[in-house]
Each structure stands twice: as structure tokens, then as C-alpha cells.
Design goal:
Layout: H1 3-14, H2 23-29, H3 34-37, H4 42-51, E1 58-62, H5 68-76, E2 81-86, H6 89-99, E3 104-108, E4 121-127, H7 135-148, E5 149-160, H8 165-182, H9 198-206, E6 212-219, E7 222-231
Parallel strand pairs: 1-2, 1-4, 2-3, 4-5
Antiparallel strand pairs: 5-7, 6-7
Bound molecules: S-adenosylmethionine (SAM).
């Protein structure tokens, strides 16, 4: 077994009796330390902003949180017409405090049910938010993302991936065990990481019909966080 697997197994064992937290409850309980905790992905936030084509005028950020990716995106595109969707009101308030002078519309809603519209955006971004969801729910979401993009539009995703099938399976089965234990309904969102392998993530995005779906790469210091690009 590889090191990543053994580390995950150890961590799951240490935390096995901890109750699951709701998705928004998890982030709201940690709102004051959130940005500090995410500082390790500064390079990825900057990279995502650099990958947006220069012609982008409108953007949807799903799971935008407090907008750490938008901090960099707005440096490059200060007039970008932007919609940010997030479940957490407190995260959106933090984002609003930083960027209320921008052309920014904030929606406190579940991105699975949010009406993204058709051919509305030049770009959609998702940073560290989709690793909480199953492949089945992601495939439905990727189709919505595809539909809301204009022809030639770009989807950028930067997220955790499982570095082996064993890790994907272990996290998934432990999530299921904890959900059953805590009596969580199937449609309720909890904060528990169930990343897919890179291959499964790319294949799930492909089902939406994008003309190009590719791994852009990893940063040298982090082989768990993949940058993915899809073009409509
Ligand atoms: C780790 S944070 C990432 C936030 C931001 N993208 C960043 O990188 O700083 C994940 C965010 O996704 C949001 N989120 C998770 N599931 C969601 C859903 N179904 N609909 C809307 N937001 C969701 C959470 O509330 C949280 O703010």
C-alpha cells in the first residue's frame, strides 16, 4: 500500500467517532481561520486566474466561498461580470466585504439546483469544492456547466484527486459508513472528502459533451491537487 493510502487510513481511524458536519456548518464554524488554512493553495489560485483566456467577460464561480480564486481573477480582470454561488452565507459575506466594488452578483444556493441558464458565461470555475460529491451527482452538474457556457467557453476545475483507486474506494466507503451511522439523508450535504481518481474525474467531465477535456497539470509541490480544463 502506498503512503497516501496509509496516511488516509490512519486519519480515518483517528477520526472514526467524529460526527459528520453539514457542508455549510463546517465552513461557517471555521470562517475566521479559513483563508489562512487555504493559503497553501496560493499558487493554484494564481494559476487558475492565469489560465483564463484574455477574452473572458463573464464568469460563474461555483462554491466560490470567500473568493480566494476571485482575489487573483479580479486582479487580471477587474471588470469581469461575475456570479458567485455558495451554500454558506458567511463565506459570501466575507467575499462581499473584499469585492463589493466589483461587478459581482452573489447567490446563496446549492449549485446543483441553481439555474445556471444557457450559453450565459464565457467561463466557469470550481476550486476545491467538488471533492465532496459522488460521480453521479457530478455528471449532472457537469452537464449544467456545459449548457451554461457559451460556445468555446472554458471550465476550469482545481481540486483534490484520489491518487489511487484504493483511496477513492476507502474514502467513499467510510463516508457511507458515517452517513448511515449518523442517520444522514441521501440528499443532505456533509463535509467529508470523497475525491475521485483523475481518470474518473476527467471521464465524468467528458460525459457532458465538451470538445476538449484535459489535465493542465499539477504544481511541483502538490501531486494531490489537479488543474483541469474543459472547452465547450
Ligand atoms: C473548500 S471551500 C472552497 C471555496 C473557494 N472556492 C476557495 O477555494 O477558497 C468549498 C466551498 O464550496 C461550498 N459548497 C460546497 N457544496 C456546495 C453546493 N452544493 N452548493 C454551493 N456551494 C457549495 C462550501 O460552502 C464552501 O464555501
Amino acid at each position: 500500500m502506498d503512503r497516501d493510502y496509509l496516511e488516509l487510513k490512519k486519519w480515518l481511524e483517528e477520526t472514526k467517532d467524529e460526527p459528520l458536519e453539514t457542508m455549510s456548518g463546517f465552513f461557517e464554524a471555521r470562517i475566521d481561520s479559513y483563508e489562512e488554512h487555504m493559503a497553501r493553495w496560493q499558487g493554484h489560485y494564481k494559476w487558475m486566474a492565469e489560465l483564463l483566456p484574455a477574452s473572458v467577460e463573464s464568469l460563474l464561480d461555483i462554491g466560490c466561498g470567500s473568493g480566494l480564486e476571485l482575489d487573483y481573477i479580479f486582479k487580471r480582470f477587474p471588470n469581469l461580470q461575475t456570479v458567485g454561488v455558495d451554500l454558506s452565507k458567511k463565506m459570501l459575506q466575507k467575499l462581499y466585504t473584499k469585492h463589493h466594488d466589483k461587478n459581482l452578483s452573489l447567490v446563496c444556493e446549492d449549485y446543483f439546483t441553481y439555474d445556471m441558464g444557457k450559453e450565459r458565461f464565457d467561463a466557469v470555475v470550481a476550486f476545491q469544492t467538488l471533492h465532496h460529491y459522488t460521480i453521479e451527482s457530478k455528471e449532472i452538474l457537469f452537464k449544467k456547466i456545459f449548457d451554461c457556457l457559451k460556445q468555446g467557453g472554458v471550465y476550469l476545475e482545481c481540486d483534490y484527486i484520489a491518487t489511487s483507486q484504493e483511496i477513492e474506494d476507502l474514502a467513499f466507503s467510510e463516508c457511507r459508513r458515517r452517513r448511515l451511522r449518523d442517520g444522514i439523508k441521501d440528499d443532505a450535504f456533509v463535509h467529508f472528502d470523497i475525491p475521485l481518481t483523475l481518470e474518473h474525474e476527467l471521464n465524468a467531465i467528458r460525459t457532458a459533451g465538451f470538445s476538449i477535456v484535459e489535465l493542465v497539470g499539477f504544481l511541483p509541490e502538490d501531486n494531490h491537487t489537479a488543474m483541469i480544463r474543459a472547452i465547450k
